[in-house]
Amino acid sequence: MEEYHRHCDEVGFNADEAHNIVKECIDGVLGGEDYNQNNINQWTASIVEQSLAHLVKLGKAYKYIVTCAVVQKSAYGFHTASSCFWDTTSDGTCTVRWENRTMNCIANVFAIAIVL
């Protein structure tokens, strides 16, 4: 319990905390599934909506953007990039990479501090 409180009082974006939240959401949606093109829209929507809901529940003064891409595993690989212009002392990002034998998933969280 003490570890949790330390993270809550922390100034700045806690990338580890966000990573764990998003990974749990991905595990919950994609765990045990095989790639199916017909389910991708529902899966990605569930991942971003659940992740966003859990991040907001942390009660921190942040605006969040969550993205998610799921692709069928292939020999071609899967590459993404992002760039941000922001305050590195308060804003932050984390990337979660997840895979199973049939698909790859990459989710990104961007957290922008709300200045009161």
Instruction: Estimate the global geometry from the Cα principal axes.
Output: globular
* Helical coverage, percent range: 25-40%
Q: Residue ranges: pLDDT <50 for 5 or more in a row?
A: 1-10
The total beta strand count reads 3
> Which strands sit side by side, in order, in the main sheet?
1-3-2
Strand content: 25-35%
Structure characterization notes:
- It is built from 3 helices and 3 strands.
- The chain is an alpha+beta fold and 116 residues long.
- It has helices at 2-9, 15-30, 40-57; strands at 62-72, 92-99, 103-113.
- Strands 1-3-2 form a 3-stranded antiparallel sheet, covered by helices on one side.
- A hairpin with a 3-residue loop joins strand 2 (92-99) and strand 3.
- Helix 2 (15-30) runs antiparallel to helix 3 (40-57).
- It is globular, with a radius of gyration of 15 Å.
- The longest helix has 18 residues, at 40-57.
- The model is unreliable at 1-10 (pLDDT under 50).
Set down the secondary structure blueprint:
Blueprint: H1 2-9, H2 15-30, H3 40-57, E1 62-72, E2 92-99, E3 103-113
Antiparallel strand pairs: 1-3, 2-3
Helix pairs in contact: 2-3
Write a concise keyword list for the protein shown above.
alpha+beta; 3 helices; motor protein; nucleus; 116 residues
Give the structure's gist in a few sentences.
With 116 residues, this protein is an alpha+beta fold.
